[in-house]
Design brief:
Length: 1179
């Protein structure tokens, strides 16, 4: 029927009353609840968390996708037009008004909020978790057989109301060592049955191989990574958790970590272009200087390595980063049947390095990337018609995305880790997460890992067993704590808290926890083993320990566990106590809200690291309502904290307190807190929107934990550790004091100290092991310590100053303001006194090279001090002992490597003619040139004089040891930042090598050595096509030999600067003695002969006629570009162009030289024999 006519005023009044009612309806989240969303945080840089552009998600995050499409384009102008209802059917508009969901509409469009791409998908009811966990306390445990099946029946009280219930464990769940008083979680559906003994019903659940999950000791959070590694040996992850040592850093581990970071940045910023990826690689390599120093690599090498591994990132993005799957975006599924395939798309990202704790599952883990995954499952296997039009099943859900840089094998460890992450992510997001994703960068393959019931069950059975062992340790410490007797024996036999060893010689021998495992086996478990498969390993690792020493470790390890017990209890309070309850104890700030108006001061803006703690975003929180002062609790500036939403979202972020006032707290966190996204997650879990997100901030007592302390203790007892230190600390061996010692070498008088203070200083300087100073209050301990530090530094020592408190260290440093030596203050910057913050690493310029980093961390270099050199730091331990006790040295004098000419050098310079050739064949050997015609061909194309060709003289088989003098060329060294190289000398070495190869010498017969890393980088580039030819440092050449060794000495300058490396006779000797048949040393005689060792060397070479002086421009006399030697033209030509060009290359464009930022041996170890020995020990 036609619309009823109304006046304009009637229509306006009606619409106004309609909108008034909407505005007065209960609002889930209104504008007032969170003004200016997103402004309450400050992050390092804007990091859009979606691979798709934000314009794709312009609708409200609360709307379903179809609703968003319908609402697109709605504006206030359109609303105003709606007031003109001349042609508008109001009855049609109001039809069904009684059935409208006003709250849902209100949240959708009546109170618009800032769009958040990540929160686009508000999950439907069918995607939410079907069953929640029930926390129970065991009251009784009975065992029975039902129909021939063994069962454990647990009588429990369910939290929080202590309702009596019953749990029946069947199949492998019965392996759990459940005891009265234990806490357990059961995940599944409970059922009620009439009780045969009363009118009340019995609520019970059966946990078997096919249904439900059982979590024993859920308050013990095991990492998904450790659990995934426990399949072969349950002992290994438990020991790794107890004793946290610094793992051996390997190049592959560093490259993998760097690639992880690069890919995560690409995911966060939705940028995958080559220029951006290269920039990220360079920045990651720059930040990783400290790690690169540990593997003796420079930034350039790191960039090359990571670039090689990152080649597939762009292809990955083109395939998989899309709103819906592309035709070639295949998803590997190892469980798929024939004819079944899957396609994948990743439309957006939720988070990077999401750290999830789950007391529901008793697990925790850090997920590489949390993504939204769209999967199309294609089935064309049934009939020919199906193959023509295959069945496509489409679904999307959040998924964990794990990046694996190793081998492209979806092994059990990777699969297990990813499966557990599906559980963690499902709980965090309140969603069903049916599978996870594994991306292998080497094969550029994405593998789908379904959350298989049987495998998850097996993992939880294993998890429960691990938790049982950990709880045994806690039970023991609780028992010991409850004993009042002061003489309690903590070393008494207790219940084993570690599984037995697997006794597999091969597996145990390669295990990274071997030292720790054997130490616990000996000292704590007191195992006697003479016949097992690992008996020899056991004896090797523990045979040095006495019974007294083993008992000492057992006692102190137990004491550490006693200290650890309370820390475990405190962490459990995060989920077992409400925020209000914990706030009463001073360990929490409850009911906190983000301050949207906060802007951090420049000094508080995010940094990558701050005092060793990751600081990516800065947030300010205030109390939601008037309450007691925030200063009244136990938390102070610098304390480690976790941020949660009580009780649903645990440990959303971790960080530390940077500012604290009575009304507000400022935190530096490892994650940004997106209030929009958090509100959506709460809605998914609770089914309703909250007016305001309330946070809780808890003190994190186990931020560092006791595992590092255990490692410090264990290091004392490992085989190969300092035996003297073990004797001093454990066996209480008498310390030794010298009669004169360092005192005689110090020239600084002890002015201003009284007799007792002077005596204390002298006592310390005479100590060979340790000295104890007992100072009463006010007796001048700080003054004495400052004086001791000055005296020790003057004597060439380095000093590590430690104390129980930061203030004590800072007080002593204030006494050293006038010191003329370098000081590096370590520690959390927020806890260091402002007056001494100038000594911190952050106060120094950003290190851009390894040399600069080393200068900052190692300052002052110990052997620059004359007293240190005088004390013998330049002398190796072997040389020192052999000189002092020659009777203890047994000489091995016959050598079977070098010919007599090469041996002569070391014999005269180092070994005082004690070396002898093992046979006449060895003494007379020379380098054979199978293809001597190559030199004739080379002369035909070159400008050199054949009669006096330096190359022909050099390659002569009779020339067995030769120094190639470059002074007349000339070949000058140059600096690249802090590093040294010699490009012309490198070109000469390159030409010599190419001519040797042209004459028929094999690549594996030649070795190129230089003491300078920068030179080696350049040589490696020139010789990049020679895959079998090795370029080595002197240290890495140890243990190797070659028929021909070519040494590039590098240093050539008018100032006679040769650096410390060339002065090191040990490295020079190692370099000389690598050659079997031919030794070629290239360098500047004028520069090098100033060194005493090399002066003697040149005198010897002169007397034998073994010096070859090169003519001017020798590097330009031979044209190797058409010599017939296979090579990449670019390497040689680019180098010639950079040097000025060959006669044939004049007029060509110059090649821009890339900036070299790598590490050289000299730049790191210049004048530092002690540091050099430390670095060599890790090669």
């Amino acid at each position: 029927m036609p619309p009823v006519a109304h006046t304009e005023k009637e229509e306006n009044d009606f619409l106004q009353s309609l909108f008034d009612e909407l505005d007065s309806a209960p609002s889930a989240i209104g504008p007032s609840s969170s003004p200016s969303r997103g402004h309450g945080r400050h992050t390092v840089a804007p990091q859009p968390r979606t691979p798709l552009r934000a314009s794709k998600f312009n609708g409200s995050p609360r709307m379903a996708p179809s609703t968003c499409a319908n609402m697109t384009g709605m504006s206030s102008g359109i609303l105003r037009e709606a007031v003109d209802v001349e042609h508008f059917d109001i009855d049609a508009l109001m039809d069904g008004v009684d059935d409208w969901d006003w709250d849902d509409m209100n949240s959708d469009f009546m109170t618009p909020r800032k769009s958040s791409p990540r929160s686009k998908y508000t999950l439907s009811e069918d995607k939410r978790k079907a069953h929640s966990a029930t926390r129970c306390v065991v009251k009784a445990v009975t065992e029975q057989f039902t129909s021939g099946r063994f069962e454990k029946v647990l009588s429990v009280n369910a939290s929080p109301y202590k309702n009596p219930r019953q749990i029946i464990l069947r199949d492998d769940w019965t392996h759990a060592d459940v005891r009265v008083g234990d806490t357990v979680n059961v995940i599944g559906e409970w059922t009620s049955f009439p009780s045969p003994r009363s009118s009340n019903s019995i609520t019970m659940i059966t946990v078997c191989s096919k249904h439900n999950l059982f979590v024993h000791h859920p308050d013990i959070l095991l990492t998904a990574t450790s659990l995934s590694n426990a399949s072969q040996c349950l002992r290994k992850p438990l020991l790794s958790n107890m004793v946290r040592s610094s793992s051996d850093v390997t190049p592959s581990l560093i490259w993998g970590n760097m690639l992880h970071e690069v890919m995560q940045t690409c995911l966060s910023t939705a940028r995958w272009d080559e220029k951006f990826v290269d920039k990220q690689i360079a920045e990651v390599a720059q930040r990783g200087l400290g790690e690169l120093l540990r593997i003796d690599m420079g930034i350039d090498q790191a960039i090359i390595e990571v670039k090689g591994k990152a080649k597939g990132l762009k292809m990955f993005a083109e395939k998989y980063i899309a709103p819906s799957p592309k035709h070639d975006a295949f998803l590997t599924n190892t469980r798929s049947s024939k004819g079944e395939s899957s396609l994948l798309a990743i439309p957006h990202l939720y988070d990077i390095e999401e750290d999830i704790w789950s007391p529901t599952y008793g697990l925790k883990g850090k997920i590489d990337a949390s993504v939204e995954a769209v999967v199309h499952d294609i089935d064309d296997s049934s009939t020919p018609f199906a193959r023509a039009t295959p069945k496509v099943t489409k679904h999307s859900s959040p998924m964990p995305f794990e990046i694996k840089t190793g081998r492209a094998v979806a092994g059990m460890e990777h699969r297990a880790q990813t499966m557990l992450y599906t559980l963690l992510m499902g709980e965090r997001y309140g969603a069903e997460v049916p599978s996870g994703l594994l991306y292998y960068t080497q094969s550029e393959e994405v593998v789908r890992v379904p959350a298989a019931r049987n495998e998850i069950r097996a993992l939880f059975v294993m998890r429960n067993e691990m938790a049982g062992y950990m709880m045994r340790r806690l039970r023991t410490t609780a028992y010991l704590t409850g004993i009042e007797d002061e003489e309690v024996d903590v070393t008494a036999d207790v219940e084993p808290f570690l599984p037995p060893t697997i006794d597999d010689n091969r597996a145990c021998g390669k295990c990274y926890t071997l030292d720790t495992c054997m130490l616990y086996r000996k000292a704590v478990e007191q195992v006697e083993d003479v016949d097992s498969d690992i008996a020899d390993i056991y004896a090797l690792k523990t045979g040095h320990l006495t019974s007294t020493q083993a008992a000492f470790f057992k006692k102190w390890e137990a004491l550490i566990s006693l200290e650890e017990k309370d820390l475990v209890r405190f962490r459990k309070e995060l989920w077992t106590m409400t925020a209000d309850e914990r706030e009463e104890k001073g360990r929490c700030f409850g009911r906190m809200v983000l301050d949207a108006s906060y802007r951090p001061e420049p000094s508080l803006k995010p940094t990558i690291h701050k005092g060793g703690v990751i600081h990516r975003s800065t947030h300010c929180f205030v109390k939601s309502s008037g309450a007691v002062s925030l200063l009244s609790g136990h938390m102070i500036v610098g304390d480690a904290v976790t941020v949660s939403v009580d009780p649903d979202l645990l440990a959303l972020a971790r960080g530390f307190i940077v500012e604290l006032t009575p009304d507000a707290v400022v935190l530096g966190l490892d994650h940004e807190l997106d209030e929009e996204l958090i509100a959506d997650r709460l809605h998914n879990k609770r089914g309703e929107f909250m007016d305001q997100v309330l946070f809780r901030i808890d003190k994190d007592e186990l931020f560092g934990g006791m595992a590092r302390i255990r490692d410090n203790l264990a290091q004392l007892f490992y085989a190969g550790s300092n035996a003297r230190r073990l004797e001093l600390i454990v066996d209480l061996a008498k310390p030794h004091f010298s009669e004169g010692g360092v005192v005689a070498e110090t020239a600084t008088p002890l002015h201003g100290l009284n007799r007792d203070q002077q005596g204390a200083v002298r006592k310390v300087l005479q100590a060979e092991d340790y000295a104890l100073i007992l100072g009463m209050p006010g007796t001048g301990k700080t003054t004495v310590i400052a004086a001791i530090i000055k005296e020790l530094v003057e004597a060439g020592k380095t000093v590590l100053l430690t104390s129980y408190t930061h203030s004590a260290v800072d007080t002593i440093l204030s006494k050293l303001d006038d010191a003329d030596f370098g000081i590096l203050r370590l520690g959390n910057l927020d806890k260091i006194h402002p007056a001494v913050q100038g000594h911190t690493l952050s106060a120094r310029p950003l290190a851009k090279t390894i040399e600069q980093l080393e200068q900052q961390v190692m300052s002052p270099p110990v052997v620059k001090n004359k007293a240190a050199r005088k004390g013998g730091l330049e002398v190796s331990l072997f040389r020192r002992l052999s000189d002092a006790h020659p009777e203890a040295v047994i000489d091995l004098t016959h050598q079977y490597r070098m010919n007599s000419d090469i041996m002569l050098l070391s014999n005269k310079l180092i070994y005082s003619d004690r070396l002898k050739c093992g046979s006449e064949v060895i003494a007379s050997r020379s380098l054979n040139l199978p293809n001597k015609r190559f030199l004739h061909q080379l002369h035909a194309k070159s400008t050199c004089c054949v009669a006096e060709c330096w190359m022909e003289r050099l390659l002569s088989e009779s020339c067995k040891a030769v120094f190639v003098d470059t002074d007349r060329v000339p070949a000058r060294d140059s600096r690249v930042g802090d590093l040294v190289e010699n490009k012309i000398e490198a070109q000469l070495v390159y030409q010599i090598t190419e001519c040797l190869l042209g004459c028929g010498v094999r690549q594996d017969q030649i070795g190129v050595i230089s003491l300078y890393r920068q030179q080696l980088k350049h040589l490696s580039y020139l010789l990049q096509d020679r895959k079998e030819l090795e370029t080595l440092t002197a240290d890495r050449s140890q243990g190797r030999d070659k028929d021909c060794i070519i040494i590039s000495m590098v240093r050539s300058n008018d100032d006679g600067l040769i650096g410390e490396l060339v002065k090191d006779w040990r490295r020079m000797n190692v370099s000389f003695t690598r050659a079997r048949s031919k030794l070629i040393i290239v360098g500047s005689r004028k520069t090098l002969q100033g060194t005493p060792l090399l002066k003697e060397f040149f005198e010897l070479m002169d007397s034998r006629g073994w010096i070859l002086a090169l003519p001017p421009d020798a590097h330009l006399l031979h044209d190797l570009s058409r010599s017939g030697v296979p090579k990449k033209r670019s390497a040689g030509e680019m180098t010639l162009e950079a040097l000025g060009g060959s006669p044939q290359s004049k007029g060509c464009g110059s090649v821009k030289r890339s900036k070299n930022v790598g590490a050289s041996e000299e730049s790191i170890l210049k004048g530092r024999p002690l540091l050099r020995d430390v670095v060599n020990a890790h090669k």
